[in-house]
Design goal:
With about 450 residues, the chain is α+β, with helices and mostly antiparallel strands. About 35% of the residues lie in helices and about 20% in strands.
Length: about 450
């Protein structure tokens, strides 16, 4: 459940044969495309469509790092998003053996970088900046809002400055509570900030691993007895939405303390999040007995739910979670999740902005900036970018805090739920990125 790096980098093929300098733009462009480059890029189109002969086009070193099945799987994921590759729209040489490509697809375009090895084959290849044509055509926040409104299921969206009295620049049901996935981890980070600023905790305090059953993540396989700092856990929880780090922090800080932060940070629907579930508890409730455990949980009042979590759910091992839970179908997202509206998440990001000058608050803003999410391509246009998102089948949510060059804090927050089917994460991410580009003056 987790968020998720920016989907603008969905397809990434990069080998050691490609030096970092290959991605830099040269100051002078070659006026002609050498024969090897022209030939190899023509061959790429067939390979991008799942055909062709990769052994003829790519070096052995490349295919050792990116075996043909993996290459075809990545290309298939791009086809799912943009349709078949139509052709190479442009080739811009960037020095000897290097070029930028603009690849045309049925539903949009993608940028790519190609590096040729001395034998004339492709030794480095990156495909990124996937852009759907219909989203690329959007030029106003109103158009982005209308695109969110056309999504199946339920969507909510807001773009606003967080100064007192500000009116939203764009809004679609911004006070509608929806499932937000891992975005709830902002509340855990807020409680950590509060506790450190109050002198109750320090970033350097440690948690000893081995006493708590953990979901998968960066800490579930670490040797028992290992000590991990609160700072390291917070960084992992935000940067890569690490679920094991999240559960360790929730346990260390205390469920009741974290629940106590729901109101102060601005969650209007705090009752819907009681008890505040750990990620492993959610996985057990949804993934054991085909969701029957979770259905029974939803019939209980908050006190009975807490007893169930402390007793029956705690005793069930994580190994009891049915593998079918990971098949990509939504499970009980209307009732068993973490819930907030875009307005709630705006208030939460405003809480962090207000604490920018406290010792712990400043560090929290640094941590929130570790992963720019959908602001990857617009990060340079802002003085600050902080991000948290979350997803599971049928759920995706992204909230971005930015500070513009005149020091105004703004938030873009969007959530999409569809109980009937997995959501199109790429489309959603592209819409949020487009809103940020318009806000930054890039579109």
């Amino acid at each position: 459940m987790g968020p998720k790096a920016s989907l603008t980098l969905t397809a990434l093929l990069l080998t050691s044969a490609m030096p970092a300098s290959a991605r830099a733009v040269a100051t002078a462009e070659m006026k002609t495309v050498p024969g090897d480059m022209a030939r190899r890029t023509r061959e790429l189109v067939s390979i991008l469509n799942g055909r062709g002969e990769p052994q003829r086009t790519f070096t052995k070193t490349f295919l050792a790092d990116v075996p043909e099945p993996k290459l075809r799987a990545i290309n298939a994921s791009v086809i799912d998003q943009l349709g078949q590759a139509i052709g190479i729209m442009s080739i811009t040489p960037r020095g000897t053996g290097r070029a930028d490509l603009l690849i045309g697809y049925e539903k949009g375009t993608a940028h790519a970088v190609v590096v040729l090895a001395p034998d004339g084959k492709i030794g480095g290849f990156v495909i990124d900046q996937l852009q759907r044509a219909d989203i690329a055509a959007l030029t106003t926040l109103d158009q982005v809002t209308q695109a969110f409104a056309r999504l199946p299921g339920a969507a909510a969206f807001v773009v606003t400055e967080i100064a007192s009295g500000s009116e939203p620049q764009a809004a679609l049901d911004p006070d509608r509570p929806l499932a937000i996935g891992s975005t709830f981890k902002l509340v855990i980070l807020a409680e950590l900030v509060r506790s450190i600023d109050a002198g109750e905790r320090r970033w350097s305090d440690t948690v000893t691993l081995g006493t708590l059953e953990l979901p998968s993540g960066g800490f579930d396989q670490v040797a028992p007895g290992t000590k991990v700092t609160l700072r390291a856990l917070a960084e992992a929880m935000i940067r890569v939405s690490d679920n094991s780090a999240t559960d360790l922090l929730l346990h260390e800080l205390g469920r009741r303390r974290v629940e106590g932060m729901l109101g102060p940070v601005g969650f209007s629907y705090a009752d819907a999040n009681m008890p505040l579930l750990s990620t492993l508890e959610l996985f057990k409730l949804k993934g054991i007995d085909g969701g029957a455990l979770g259905q029974r949980y939803l019939t209980l009042n908050p006190l009975e739910r807490q007893r169930m979590l402390d007793g029956e759910v705690a005793r069930l091992p994580g190994s009891a979670i049915d593998r079918r839970y990971a098949e990509g179908r939504p499970v009980l997202i209307d009732g068993l999740e973490w819930f907030a509206s875009p307005d709630d998440l705006v208030r939460t990001m405003a809480w962090f902005a207000r604490h920018a000058d406290t010792p712990a608050g400043g560090e929290a803003l640094r941590i929130l900036a570790l992963n720019p999410g959908p602001a990857t391509d617009t990060r340079a246009q802002f003085a600050y970018v902080g991000y948290k998102g979350g997803s599971e089948p049928g759920v995706i949510s992204e909230t971005v805090l930015v500070r513009d060059k005149v020091a105004s804090w703004k938030v873009v927050s969007a959530t999409w739920n569809d109980p009937a089917a997995a959501v199109d994460e790429f489309r959603f991410d592209a819409l949020v990125a487009k809103a940020l580009a318009i806000l930054a003056g890039k579109s």
